[in-house]
């Protein structure tokens, strides 16, 4: 039986109103493959997720992103919803296969036209577009050549970044290169639960390097083209020991923290891979893919670091335990389930871990502003008899995590904004359409959008630039 762990701290009932700093950015986030649909329209090429979702057994009930939320055709109405919520910013990703169907070569102008229209629609409603260039939908042609395990992909990514910036750079201020390279590398090439579905530890570490190199080359290209603000979004793991007094448990944390966090943060901000991790992964790869100058390219200064957070993890030493496929070299380490509240993804709810994460990054990698680029919870709530979606658990989750952000600000963290995940229910990768993260409900059969109670609550948070006390009559 899997051991359970009671969180060291838990969300307590909120008793006080809180206010965020003037200029704090309130936004929502989505990703191209998860919402756009129109998978074969206007010259879009196939992505690894088109291939993966059509591979039997990979995605829940064979769901695909072919239609998703049909945002490609409904973006005007969706932007109107954003304006109704009062969003200051909208974080969306560009589908690389819409721009270059084969990942290199000729540009598909119709693909650029869509993002041009979307950008203008956002600006017309007073919403700042925040572009993510890569949210996992790699052109299949590049994967056929080795994907992120091949240096070619990093070089092609920089060319693609230039193409998108040339079209949108006069209106888009903030450019995020990659979303969660941990997932692209470890889940795509390690456990294989995400596209492209490989299980090859050596490819994991080659992919990490080429993802980071792709970031660095794209950032270099964007900077030279005049981009105002350049970012990358990571999903750091708050790994905690089951028994902080046990040296073996602390050693387990060191390994997981190294694989999940320092393998990305150290190259980005220190210009080097952590020495203990180089030793750790040497059993899988000879690191011959790291060329002179790569780390200098990777570590060029950033304007903001995006942080995606959902849950912490608790680990302990367990001699004889097999390695997790998505953490190569994690033999002898056990992950522990929560005996506290969890979301529909079975992810533990512990807002204080977000405060801990933000203060750790602020202290260990100082000098770069932080942004919560994703935070949210999946719950299955649908329309009730009154036609409304009453998702009180999501409201509680968001309330607790916004208070955790406020605690981090009070501790001196330079946190600039918060993007809820997600604007609307969508294709949730290998989970298909059965997990709902949106603050806006989507009826996939009719494409009807319904503001959930959480959306109305978030609208009030944005209006107030904070959270009212629970017993307040305001609003």
From TrEMBL:
| Keywords annotated in UniProt | Carbohydrate metabolism, Cellulose degradation, Glycosidase, Hydrolase, Polysaccharide degradation
What organism does the UniProt record list as the source? Paractinoplanes brasiliensis
Q: Which reaction is recorded as catalysed by this protein?
A: Hydrolysis of terminal, non-reducing beta-D-glucosyl residues with release of beta-D-glucose
Identify the EC number(s).
3.2.1.21
Q: Which SUPFAM superfamilies match?
A: (Trans)glycosidases (SSF51445)
Q: Which domain of life is it from?
A: Bacteria
Q: Does the keyword Glycoprotein apply?
A: no
NCBIfam families reported for this sequence? BGL
What protein name is recorded for this chain? Beta-glucosidase
Catalytic residues (positions) = 180 (proton donor), 374 (nucleophile)
PANTHER family assigned: GLYCOSYL HYDROLASE, LP05116P
By sequence similarity, the record places it as follows: Belongs to the glycosyl hydrolase 1 family.
Q: For binding substrate, which residues are annotated in this chain's numbering?
A: 34, 135, 179, 310, 421, 428-429
């Amino acid at each position: 039986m899997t051991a359970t762990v009671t969180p060291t701290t838990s969300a307590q009932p909120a008793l006080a109103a809180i206010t965020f700093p003037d200029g704090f950015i309130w936004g929502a986030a989505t990703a191209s493959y998860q919402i756009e649909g129109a998978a074969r329209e206007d010259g879009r090429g196939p992505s690894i997720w088109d291939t993966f979702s059509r591979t039997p057994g990979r995605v829940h009930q064979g769901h695909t992103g072919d239609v998703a939320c049909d945002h490609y055709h409904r973006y005007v109405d969706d932007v109107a919803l954003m304006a109704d919520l009062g969003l200051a910013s909208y974080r969306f990703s560009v589908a690389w296969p819409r721009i270059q169907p084969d990942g290199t070569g000729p540009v598909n102008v119709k693909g650029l036209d869509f993002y041009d229209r979307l950008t203008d629609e956002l600006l017309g409603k007073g919403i700042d577009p925040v572009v993510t260039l890569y949210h996992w939908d790699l052109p299949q042609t590049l994967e056929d050549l080795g994907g992120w395990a091949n240096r070619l992909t990093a070089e092609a990514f920089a060319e693609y970044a230039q193409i998108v910036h040339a079209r949108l750079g006069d209106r888009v201020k903030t450019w995020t290169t990659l979303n969660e390279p941990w997932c692209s590398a470890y889940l795509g090439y390690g456990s294989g639960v995400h596209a492209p579905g490989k299980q090859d530890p050596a490819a994991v570490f080659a992919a990490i390097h080429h993802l980071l190199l792709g970031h660095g080359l794209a950032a270099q290209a964007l900077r030279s083209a005049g981009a105002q603000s350049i970012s990358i979004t990571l999903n750091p793991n708050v790994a905690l020991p089951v028994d902080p007094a046990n040296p073996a448990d602390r050693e387990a944390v060191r390994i997981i923290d190294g694989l999940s966090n320092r393998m990305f943060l150290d190259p980005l901000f220190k210009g080097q891979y952590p020495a203990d991790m180089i030793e750790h992964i040497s059993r899988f790869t000879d690191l011959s893919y790291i060329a002179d100058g790569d780390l200098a390219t990777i570590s060029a200064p950033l304007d903001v670091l995006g942080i995606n957070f959902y849950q912490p993890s608790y680990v302990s030493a367990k001699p004889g335990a097999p390695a997790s496929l998505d953490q190569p070299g994690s033999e002898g380490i056990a992950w522990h389930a929560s005996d506290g509240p969890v979301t529909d993804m079975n992810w533990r709810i512990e807002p204080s871990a977000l405060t801990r994460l933000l203060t750790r990054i602020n202290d260990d990698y100082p000098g770069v502003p932080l942004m919560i680029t994703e935070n949210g919870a999946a719950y299955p709530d649908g329309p009730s008899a009154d036609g409304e979606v009453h998702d009180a658990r999501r409201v509680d989750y968001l309330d607790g995590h916004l208070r955790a952000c406020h605690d981090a600000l009070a501790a001196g963290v330079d946190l600039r904004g918060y993007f809820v995940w997600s604007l609307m229910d969508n294709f949730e990768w290998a989970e298909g359409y059965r997990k709902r993260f949106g603050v806006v409900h989507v009826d996939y059969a009719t494409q009807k959008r319904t503001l959930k109670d959480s959306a109305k609550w978030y609208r009030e948070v944005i209006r107030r630039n904070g959270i009212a006390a629970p017993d307040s009559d305001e609003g």
